[in-house]
Amino acid sequence: MRILVINGPNLNMLGRRDPAAYGAATLAEIEERIQGEAGELGVEVSLFQSNHEGDIVDFIQQSAGCASGIIINAGALTHYGLSMRDALADARLPVVEAHISNIHAREEFRRHSVVAPIAVGQIAGLGWRGYIYGLRFLVERVKEGEQS
User: Fold this and answer.
1) In the chain, N or C: fewer CB atoms in 10 Å?
2) Where do the domains of the chain lie, and which CATH numbers do they carry?
3) Strand locations in the chain (E)
């Protein structure tokens, strides 16, 4: 089983970017934690980050065929990334939307997500652990589906 873990614009700046909102962990540290959890769960993860929506669309289109689910923190694309949203929908995989900060307690524009309507769930405000919870959820969901 392979899960895609996608991070959008500016998430490469984690650890330096507004630690009050995003914590002190770098993206590399978070990805290391995700890889560790994936190993414990016996699954593979494909990690990807880009500051460009088209690159994210390309990654989804190229990788979805050999994946069982997607965790995405789309960053600012959460609010307006329609081509990314369409690529996620076209992938026909369960999607978990993850946000390090609680987008619902921040500026008004951050509260709207174009991803949420096509996601099986959204995790917001739980820091880097949201990726881990999303991974566990998707693995359980896929395994339950395989047994039905």
Assistant:
1) C
2) 2-147 (3.40.50.9100)
3) 2-7, 44-49, 69-73, 95-99, 121-124
Say how far apart CA 19 and CA 133 lie, in whole Å.
21
CA dist., res. 63 & res. 33, Å (int): 22
C-alpha dihedral, 30 to 99 to 113 to 6, nearest 10° = 10
- pLDDT surpasses 70 at 82: yes
Euclidean distance between CA atoms 36 and 44, whole angstroms: 10
Type of residue at 139:
V
3-state secondary structure of 20: helix
Copy the structure tokens of residue 43: 């699954």
Which two three-digit tokens encode residue 60? Answer: 């989804």
As a whole number, the mean pLDDT across the chain is 94
Structure tokens at 126: 């739980």
The C-alpha atoms of residue 113 and residue 111 are separated, in whole angstroms, by 7
Q: Is the pLDDT of residue 148 over 80?
A: no
CB 71 within 8 A of CB 138: yes
Residues with catalytic function: 22, 99
